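Example (one chain per record):
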Amino acid sequence: QVQLVESGGGLVQPGGSLRLSCAASGYIVSLNPMGWYRQAPGKQRELVAIITSGGITNYADSVKGRFTVSRDNAKNTASLQMNSLKPEDTAVYYCYARNWERSSWIDYWGQGTQVTVPS
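Predicted structure:
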């Protein structure tokens, strides 16, 4: 089992910045990838950004150039730097990680952290 704990959400004005952090703990063999998803009210959960253990990243088109995902493999942490925030970025943000255990990849999710950008 792996536990993911997010921190760093909150209320920020349009154009502002926030940094989300995620700490993984538990039976960690290899977390690959780690990243972030978000879910706005009435919408499906969507990919925001993910990063492999080798540093390869993938971003949603809507956040490219504004958000940056990073990770520290030694500390089993991931971060999401969010700049130039827009009202449409308002959502619950979930940390995500895939762990190798019992000869298969298992998906884990954090509890979510609210990000609110008022219009």
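Caption: The first strand starts at residue 2 and ends at 7.
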